[in-house]
Design goal:
By secondary structure, the chain is α/β, with parallel strands linked by helices. It contains eight helices and eight strands, in the order βαβαβββααβαβααβα. Bound molecules: 2'-deoxycytidine-5'-monophosphate (DC).
């Protein structure tokens, strides 16, 4: 059976995950947050100190209508959002063994379900035949402000705005410059810059594009 695959790529803090999750709920698609999968690998590394992926299982499960991220059956949905894990995820995402490990699982999900999958290399590497590819971005200052507000909400008060901006710029550079699956728009991606948009405007814009490209 044909499944619809939507790829949403872009730098961190562009609003990919919240927008993708909301649109997926509206359309009844499965939302796959591939960044969360890399974050589990980052957390696993921070905890074990070993790069080995043997025995590591990552799963996305719905609990009371909410998607949770499990590392070997342990719910790590909150832990993986910690600032230290972002860096570890970005570091480990440069490794071919890590990318191969996740690629297989991501393609499997896209084959079985209608998905909105967000990440950095979904349109270029994971789902090159996606029905629609969107590259979602926003100016670094706006992305840093969003991330800062998000961390504050979560009670992580130890970082100031300038540090976040610096980290975002640094992480962009690291994600763009790596030799394997770097962050870049696919040739056939639609580029959307959400700077100055409200969340609702971005959701509506993407929902419309998906309806147009899939006929649903
Ligand atoms: O989207 P995020 O900030 O949760 O992603 C965490 C890190 O994982 C990010 O710095 C780069 C990496 N990543 C990747 O290399 N490829 C993806 N498809 C998704 C994330």
């Amino acid at each position: 059976m044909k499944t619809y695959n939507i790829a949403i790529d872009g730098p961190s803090g562009a609003g990919k995950s919240t927008i993708s999750r909301t649109v997926a709920e509206k359309l009844g698609f499965l939302y796959v947050d591939t960044g969360a999968m890399y974050r589990v690998i980052g957390l696993h590394y921070l905890e074990t100190g070993s790069p080995s992926l043997d025995g590591l299982t990552i799963s996305l499960k719905y609990v009371n209508g909410e998607q949770r991220v499990l590392m070997n059956d342990r719910d790590v949905s909150e832990e993986i959002r910690q600032h230290s894990v972002s860096r570890a995820a970005s570091d480990r995402s440069k490794e071919q063994q890590v990318r191969d490990f996740l690629l297989e699982q991501q393609r499997h999900m896209a084959k079985k379900h209608n998905v909105i999958m967000d990440g950095r290399d979904i349109g270029t590497v994971v789902l090159p035949g996606a029905d629609l590819k969107i590259f979602l971005t926003a100016d670094p200052e706006e992305r840093a402000r969003r991330r800062y507000d998000e961390l504050l909400l979560r009670g992580e008060k130890t970082f100031d705005y300038e540090t976040i901006l610096h980290d975002i710029t640094e992480r962009d550079r690291q994600d763009q410059d790596r030799s394997i699956a770097p962050l870049k728009p696919a040739q056939d991606a639609i580029i959307l810059n959400t700077t100055g948009n409200t969340f609702e405007q971005s959701v509506l814009q993407i929902e419309k594009l998906i309806r147009k490209h899939t006929g649903i």
